Amino acid sequence: MDDIADLITESLIVRDMQGRITLWNRASERLYGWPPAQALGRSLHMLLATRHLFPMADIEARLPVAGTWVGEVARHAADGRELSVEVRWTLRRDAAGVPVDIVETGRDISALSLLEQETRLAAHRYRNLFQAMAAAFWEMDFSRVRLMIGDLMAAGITDFPRHMAENPDWIVEAMRAVRVVDVNDKAVSLFGATRREEIVGGHVAWCFPPQSRQVFAQSLIAAARRQDRYATETTLTRLDGQPIDVLFTVCWPEEHKGRGHVLVGVIDITERRRAEEETRRSERRYRELFDQMPVALGQLDLRYMNGQLAALYGDRPPPRSEADIDLDFIRDILRNTPVIEVNPRAQQLFRAARREEMLVPIECFWRTRPETVRRTVLARLRGEPGYSEETKVDALDGAQIDVLYTVAFPPSSLERGTNIVAFVDIGDRVAALAKVEQMQAELAHAGRVAMLGEMAASIAHEVNQPLAAIAASGAACLRWLGRTEPDLGEVRDLAGRVVADAQRAAGIIARVRDMAANRRADHVRVNLNELVEEATHFLRHEFQARQVELRFSPTPGPVLVSADRIQVQQVVVNLAVNALQAMAEAGTPVPRLSIAINPVGPDGLCVTVEDNGPGLDPATAPRLFESFFTTKREGLGIGLAVCRSIVEAHGGRMEAGNRADGGGARFWFTLPCLIDTPAGG
Amino acid sequence: MSSPLFVCVVDDDPSLCAALVNLLRSCGYRATAHGSAEDFLASADLAGADCVVTDIQMPGLSGIDLRLALAGRRPGLPVILMTARTERALLDRATAVRPFRLLHKPFDAEELATCLAEAIGPAEGAVRP
Q: Which of A225, A327, A533, A639 has the highest CB neighbour count under 10 A?
């Protein structure tokens, strides 16, 4: 027997069920370097350090079922060389069927492996061509899975799909039994590895999330049915746990079948999936926006308009002005441009009972203001990004509605021949605006009246003064005349006083009447020094009663302005009254008001009103000129707003602040100065 | 024969002040005009005045201040206050210093004459119209 064994050129080794060598032929001695004397009786796997991906015990444990096993093992020769040996193990049994020993034939494939490595290298080069296709390739060893399937068959299970559906754990076990032989660079990067070694040599359970395990199962089923390939879209997991959407293909190359190797191709379709999802989402979002925007939206079919515009202006420069576009041309477009979609808000705005009522040519909405569309067309022809204006549109019930109309000209949309137009109902706003304008006019008048009220006591005193004088003088006249010798000298003197006092009273009355009248501004050439000084006369008694010292500093330079005397005096009086009130309220011990006129810039005059009161609160100072803003308990808060508008109407400006020395408030306004030409010209 | 009764008028409005002085002279009183309370207090007329007619609102000392000052320096000297103002607070302050009378401008000449007659008696040689 041994002699025969020595004739065989392949290594032939028999070991008993404990692994001890019972037969060792010459070819074995040649291959491994151990003489039979040193080999016999030793443990085979100990002697040669047999290694495989799976433990020897595992493989041998299956032999009673499978009967034979073929595989590549790594071994050490006696001289330490590393050998790669393809072995075939066959279990022998005695007559009673009890395993007796294992017969091994071995073939040195170390050289062959080199060849195979070269082949792999070539294949790798070949695969590099596919890198651009973003395909990840895995070469997997399924031989152990085949053994598992063999076990199932041995256990009498034939309905694999059902078994796998009912035993997910079996699938996981099968995935763990797969050995990754090789992967390409794309696989390394796609699955988030940094080196091939992180994947090669391991199993594949990690890359199949629970919902994708059936894909693995289906691959096995396909293999069992001897299909050449299996492909599906699924989700796999990267090493970092991130899911990736992939096209998963598995094929069984003919030359790999014997060794239980399969090729798996994985193409990343995450981007494609994401793009699809994004498209779906944006379409949904667009639809939601369109339907739920609190703005009336309509989508128009612009194909007719596009054709007309191209025909008329395709090779011509755009029209220069609105008038260059014939309104009949626009009307023709309006008749041929239908609405293809509207949102609920648009139905509401245009008073449509049903959506379909609005899906008509836009002509009926633009009867009142076709010019708006003409301006829209002009803007588009000029290449502007969009157009917007406040206009009127016709509702279906014939009402005209104030709207803010807006349209953009996105090139992509125009190319598709549709566009969106938007309308915001501004009817309430337009009405409100008209009311505000009316209120502003009333306010200005109310401001003057309110100021009059503040000055009423002062004016009464002012008027009463000459009246009292007149009464006294008149009475005195009568007495002088009633004497036995009338003193005509005294009477003449008194009559003159009466005339002067009457004129004084009339002047006061005229000033008050002028100020009270809500009349139009009456601009005349006036001397600003005189004008301001006269204004202070209004308050003379106010100053005296409150013991406020008034310092008036007229300008020595050019002093003529074009102004409405009453209005500007109103400003000065208002600023002075404010100062008086502020100082009184703060209990300023020695109240002092300075009014100064100074040249400012090349052709301006500045009137500055300063007090030595508490000054302005920085927190409220910015709002001083707002209508209805007031720090006074009973103030209307319109005085300063009216003042500023008066000054601005005169071409000047007005500011407020505190004195540079911090000792009080400082208001100033400017007026343009007239060239001071000699009088009489 | 005593000299005519002497009335001093204090008012910062020169026109009214002069008119009143003339009126009082026409009634037979001797009268002088003073533009402010301070002027009057510093003048020689202070000692000889039989009555003072003063405006309330004036720069510097007011008519009310003057009344209080006179109460110390010329006790018993009647002071007639005048005002064109109507504010309650001011009028209350004026009556609080107990003037002989408070006249509201414009007032009747007869009213002033009556008031003076009550205060110091009719002017010597006064002629009634």
A: A639
Q: What CATH number is given to the structural domain containing B59?
A: 3.40.50.2300
Neighbours of A430 (CB within 10 A): 15
Least confident of A22-26, A65-69, B18-22: A65-69
Residues of B with CB under 8 A from a CB of A: 12-13, 15-16, 18-20, 22-23, 25-27, 57-60, 82, 84-87, 105-110, 112, 127-129
C-alpha–C-alpha distance, residues A407 and A344, integer Å: 18
Q: What residues contact residue A145 under an 8 Å CB cut-off, 6+ apart?
A: A174, A177, A178, A220, A260
Number of domain units in chain B: 1
Task: Give domain status of residue A483, yes or no.
Answer: yes
Phi, psi (deg, nearest 5) at residue B95? -70, -25
CB atoms within 10 A of CB A462: 25
Q: What is the ipTM metric for this complex?
A: 0.85
Count structural domains, chain A: 5
Q: Would you call A158 helix, strand, or coil by DSSP?
A: coil
Report pLDDT digits (tens) over A571-611. Answer: 888 888 888 888 888 888 889 999 999 998 888 999 999 99
Domain region containing B89: 6-115
CA distance A259 to A113: 14
pLDDT band at A113 (very low <50, low <70, confident <90, very high): low
Q: Could you tell me which residues come within 8 angstroms of residue A203 by beta carbon, excluding any fewer than 6 positions away?
A: A175, A176, A177, A178, A179, A180
Helix axes A168-177, A143-154, angle to 10 degrees: 140
Mean pLDDT of chain A: 82
Any chain B CB within 8 A of the CB of A238? no
Q: Which residue bears the tokens 């069927």?
A: A97
Residue A438's pLDDT is 64
pLDDT in tens, A14-33: 999 999 999 999 989 999 99
Name the range with the highest mean pLDDT among A595-604, A637-646, B29-38. B29-38
Of A471, A497, A545, the CB nearest to B109: A471
Residue B127 lies in a domain: no
Tell me, yes or no, if A475 comes closer than 8 A to chain B by beta carbon.
yes
Answer yes or no: do A497 and A580 share one domain: no
Predicted confidence (pLDDT) per residue in A123-172, tens digit: 555 555 444 445 788 888 888 888 888 888 888 888 888 888 888 888 99
| Whether residue A58 sits in one domain with residue A11 | yes
Residue A117 placed within a domain = no
Phi, psi of B18 (to 5 degrees): -65, -40
Residue span of the structural domain in which A434 resides: 427-519
> Percent of chain A having pLDDT more than 70?
85
Residue of chain A nearest B16, judged by CA positions: A469
Whether residue A547 and residue B16 make contact (CB cut-off 8 A), yes or no, is no
Burial A163-202 (b: 16+ CB within 10 A, else e): bbeeeeeebbebbebbbbbbbbebbbebbebeeeeebbee
Facing A497 at nearest CB: one of B15, B25, B128? B15
- Tell me if chain B has a CB within 8 Å of the CB of A507: no
**A119 belongs to a structural domain:** no
Q: Within an 8 Å CB–CB cutoff, is residue A576 touching chain B?
A: no
Q: How far is B87 from chain A (nearest CA, A)?
A: 8
Q: How far is A661 from chain B (nearest CA, A)?
A: 27
Q: Are residues A313 and A459 in the same domain?
A: no
Decide if A336 is inside a domain: yes
Contacts of A628-633 with CB under 8 Å at 24 or more apart are A632/A581
Report the alpha-carbon angle A525-A527-A530, nearest 5. Answer: 140
Contact between B15 and A475 using a beta-carbon 8 Å cutoff: no
Q: Alpha carbon of A58 to those of A21, A130, B3: distances in Å?
A: 19, 38, 154
CB < 8 Å to A541, chain B: 57
Q: Is A109 on the interface with B (CB under 8 A)?
A: no
Tokens 């007149």, residue located:
A470
